[in-house]
Design a protein that fits this description.
four-stranded antiparallel sheet, six-stranded mixed sheet, alpha/beta, binds adenosine-5'-triphosphate
């Protein structure tokens, strides 16, 4: 049995009267990529936000490295090593690439450490190194997604949560981004991935959960779900 880094049990999240997440449970084994797939509005983003502390659960529990983080503040959760790259790659448009990356390091005090982390990010994303001084708002969509990922890596988290990294990007750029996501995982970071593109998600993750209107309806090894007729019909197209 592999060690579990994140464990979510019976999580419920409401927005006013709307039940967005209706009691879901899942685990992320340490060092793995786990994906949540599902249609628009299934509750995927809400689940990530609840883990990050950005929305408060109505009930249920979330534990990270064996410690409860349920309902804790986002800053505390980040300091424990959970980092969220939200949907829509928000970068600081008027700041340079380098300044954006340094913003990701704001909880790290040590200058030598920041320099080392910057080097690591620039090694992973040579395109960002070339554009170090460029204003982030003038980067292409794919480069902005790289910057959002790079900034997340600057916090040195052990669990990276990615909300729709492929959104709005050309297929060739998506391929590049996913290659990097796999590389980040291979270097030891656990990943919880949300992705509309079910094929991409299932070929990247080892384990997957299907979310439908706030509930988990299927789960299993990604390779099994890829071959499942219901998954094929509902999420993989022809
Ligand atoms: P998408 O891929 O479209 O982002 P999702 O699976 O991530 O979908 P969520 O964004 O988690 O879905 O939304 C789940 C449900 O909660 C939806 O019905 C949505 O309308 C609702 N919801 C999300 N955020 C809020 C909010 N701030 N206030 C009220 N309802 C919300």
């Amino acid at each position: 049995m592999s060690e579990t880094i994140l464990s979510v049990k019976d999580l419920k999240v409401n927005y006013g009267g709307i039940e967005a997440v209706k009691g879901i449970s899942f685990d992320v084994p340490k060092g793995s990529v786990v994906t949540l797939i599902g249609a628009n509005g299934a509750g995927k983003s809400t689940t990530l936000k609840a883990i990050a502390g950005l929305v408060k659960p109505a009930s249920g529990s979330i534990s990270f490295k064996g410690e409860s983080i349920t309902g804790k503040d986002p800053s505390l959760i980040v300091s424990k090593g959970i980092v969220l790259v939200p949907e829509g790659r928000r970068v600081f448009a008027r700041m340079s690439v380098d300044e954006n990356l340094r913003m990701g390091a704001n909880i790290i005090k040590d200058r030598a450490q920041i320099k080392q982390d910057l080097e690591r990010v620039y090694d992973i994303f040579p395109r960002l190194r070339e554009r170090m001084k460029q204003q982030a708002g003038t980067l292409s969509g794919g480069e902005q997604q790289m910057l959002a990922l790079g900034r997340a890596l600057m916090t040195n988290g052990s669990l990276l949560m990615l909300d729709e990294p492929s959104m709005g990007l050309a297929p060739i750029i998506v391929e590049e981004i996913f290659k990097i996501i796999r590389q980040i995982n291979e270097s030891g970071t656990s990943i919880l991935l949300i992705e509309q593109n079910a094929f991409l998600a299932l070929t990247t993750a080892s384990h997957a959960y299907v979310l439908e209107t706030g509930k988990i309806t299927m789960q299993g090894k990604s390779s099994d779900l890829l071959a499942d007729k219901r998954v094929k019909d509902a999420y993989l197209g022809a």
